[in-house]
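User: Second chain of the day. Same drill as before.
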Amino acid sequence: MTKLKAFCHLCKYCTKNKLLEHPSDSAFVSLGYDNWKKALERFQRHADCLSHKEAAKKVMQIQRPGIDCLLDGQCLKSQQLHRRMLYTVLSSLRFLVRQGLAIRGHDEMESNLMQLLLLRCDDIPDLKRWLHEKRFLSSDISNEVVKIMSNRLLRGLLQDIRDTSYFSLIVDEATDTCHQEQLSISVRWVDDVFEIHETVIQLINVPKTDSATLTACIKDCLVRLGLPLSQCRGQAYDGAANMSGHIRGVAAQIQEIEPTAVYVHCLAHSTNLSLQAVGKNVLPIRDALDLVMEVGQLIRFSPKRSSLFSSLQEQMSPGSPSLKPLCPTRWTVRTRAIEAVIANYGVLTEALTEIHDNGRDEYALKAGGYLTAMERFSTYFGLKLSHLVFSATEQLSVSLQSKNTTVQEAIGCADVTKKFLQDQRNDRKFEAFYLRVVEEAKDLASEPTLPRHKRRPQRIEFSSCPGHRFEDAKSYFRHQYFEVLDTACGELERRFQQRGGMSVAATLEKLFLDASNEQRIVGDFPEEIRQYSNDVNLQNLQVQLQMLPNLIKTYNQMHPSTAIKRVTSLRTLCEVIQSISGSRIMFSEVCRLLHIALTIPVTSATAERSFSVLRRLKTYLRSTMSQQRLNHLLLLHIHKDRTDTIDLVSIAKEFISINERRLSYFGKI
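Assistant: Same format as last time:
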């Protein structure tokens, strides 16, 4: 029978590793103790011996970590804490730049960043102590982090653009609060699922606005961002001579390098120019708009007069809208200002009367002049006529500002507006409009009268026939009514009959719609299509276009509940191609040309919107920021969806890896 023996683990371990200075008890080390009758007494004596105590002390020293290990552990904990605090600062900065808020303040403690971090101290226990150390919280550090975030976002945008084969340029210029000329460059591109994107990529402070300087700035921007001009297929600018000049304009110089980069005069700007022509050339519209602007400025620019108007408004017309400023440049948004004057016509008359009677300054004289004008029926008639035209064209302008609007849709919206105005041009509609205005003006203005007949001097009279005289006031206002409608329709017709890019985009869209609706394409492709022979194989395109109706029929069989009777827009064709697997490969040339058609812009509204962001970011109090910082803030504020998805861990890793000091403070991620 095998006997059980007891050993001392501590003594045996130290003896084996030669750690003991005193001799060990062999009974508990090598032989083993098995005299169980006196076991307790023997165990106690062994525990009290010097060799066992020495062994216990040696083992305890081995198991206890050294000072270097303790320091390393404390350093790792500190670095983890510092990294958590860094993530907190990064997330706070991301929030501020996303919302377009200022990061710094009058002093460091009153800055938005510091106050936001102090607010978050209630939720993050160690943040207050870290803020007290004031490490990595300077304005230079904030600007560096914003730069890293902006560059990360811009690289992602450019990669998405490069993944597509084509893009278009949308460029416009404006003056910022420092009276510096800012050139906004945006890119329009279409992704693999035919979704249209318009992306602002840069603001450039240009010294001059001549075509050569602007062209050089655009080319330099594209080179630095890695976007080859050979892939540009469209341009959208306003109608200024430096942009649209057919010889040395920016569009012409870009087309000299890349002929397929067709130019489109922004259709929203064309609508604006149409209304501008109406407002300047037609007397009743011009006088009505001038009155709206002058009366609005007289009331709103003085707290005393504004208070007087508000009190009269509460008494006479509660619930009516307040006076709106008349936009000096965007004519298509003047409807609300005109509506406000019409709704407060009686209130304004009473307010101007009181200002004129109780005042002795120049504003009292102006109020008297405006009051005299408002008491005339022609003024109220001009306001109502202006509202009729501007309200219709404002709906057209809104529809043209969408990035998804195609050329055919834009032309269709313009035709609807023209038909509406033409429908108003008949005696029956004039009769109803005139009677309605006369009825509304009974208590607001005088009776309709003919203006004083002006006889032309004999030195400029080249005919013996007397000038035309209207029979009565009604015939005079009928003439004005028809003149306004004719001018508006004529200007819209002229502005929307563009050549160049508009005709190319319209031809491309018509080609796809005709082929999808089984209208046979006879003969060769027109020149607008043949210019893309380097982009698409025209022979394969001809075959694939003939097969498009069969693709539509296949879609109808697969989706009988949403069967397509007739293809009326390119979006419908894109949905069909997306819904049928393999069609992108089978109709590769159609897809490529479809990408080009969707890439051509019809409006420069994206560049205009970037100027609205510019006014929010570069204010009077933030006017000293550098151009580089302005671009960083602009990108992060405009592309909020991408800003929200920025990986803060990767941002922190890039920030820490810049120098060894940061690496030792935050540790390696």
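The beta strands are 167-175, 181-190, 196-205, 232-237, 262-265.

User: Great, on to the next one.
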